[in-house]
Amino acid sequence: MFAEFRNRDRRLYFTVAPPYKVAIVRQPEWRNTGVAADAEYIELMKTIGGTNKQLPMQQWSKTWTTGSTISQSPHFRLFNGGQAQMITELGYLCWKYYNRLPLDNGNNSSNDAPIFRIEEVLLNYAELMFELGQFNQGVADITINKLRARANMPALQVAEVGGGFDTKRDADVQPLLWEIRRERRVELMAEGFRFNDLKRWKKGTYLNKQPLGVSVRNADYGNRLKIYGGGAQGYVQYFDQPAGWLDKYYLEPLPTQDLALNKQLEQNPDYK
């Protein structure tokens, strides 16, 4: 996981908790383990994380003199060192909404939370302009490149995006549209858009891929994790292989109550 997170789009560090390890002195006090590698992303987040995105992670509390410091990431349900907070099955903890602002006593936080972001508007506009055949460098500069500049990522150069730009691209998707969709996937991760986007693009089959977690040596975690393929080292597995996408999922079933109220309605195909 340490290698996987190295030299990546900065938005990854703000969306998924980077790996680290600390020694707990007495909760919530901690110290570095003395192993430089364990603190690699602790130091990185000091430079880019601002006030709210710092490592190690701490369980929310009224003040940071109480609560718990999480000793390491990845932090598994089946190997959590007695800390039941901020655990995962696969090792990737979504901490996009995590911050260090204290909560009040009743857990009724008055801290701001985003409901509608300008980033969504920019990405909607970029995709719309492509579908209208009007996406050019000027549109890229006022949409996607605004987002990339914020993350210190290189600007999208429309003229450079051709068939060989991404060799892992879905061949059914035009190269430039693929990059627009990639930006949407990165920027809006964990905000509830992905499933509807896949339906809108008629790409539900993307969900047929086996979900896998971080790559680990199981012995480092008490041999408690399930490793894909059954080996001693490899990707953590929790979910079984998906049953497979069915085209009927592109439409939602009509509620039975509505069908009963209006006899003119017909159920969508393949729903009984």
Describe the structure using short key phrases.
three-stranded antiparallel beta sheet, alpha+beta, signal, 8 helices, RagB/SusD family nutrient uptake outer membrane protein, single chain, 272 residues, SusD_RagB_dom, two-stranded antiparallel ribbon, membrane, cell outer membrane
Fold and architecture overview:
The protein is an alpha+beta fold and 272 residues long. The chain folds into two domains: 1-111, no CATH class; 118-208, no CATH class. The chain has eight helices and five strands; from the N terminus they run H-E-E-H-E-H-H-H-H-H-E-E-H. A three-stranded antiparallel sheet has the order 2-1-3. A hairpin with a 2-residue loop joins strand 1 (20-26) and strand 2 (29-32). Helix 3 (118-131) packs antiparallel against helix 6 (175-187). The longest helix is centred in the middle third of the chain and has 14 residues, at 118-131. It is found in: Cell outer membrane. Belongs to the SusD family.
The largest pleated sheet is described as: 3 strands, antiparallel
How many β-strand runs?
A: 5
**What count of structural domains?**
2
Rg from C-alpha positions? 22 Å
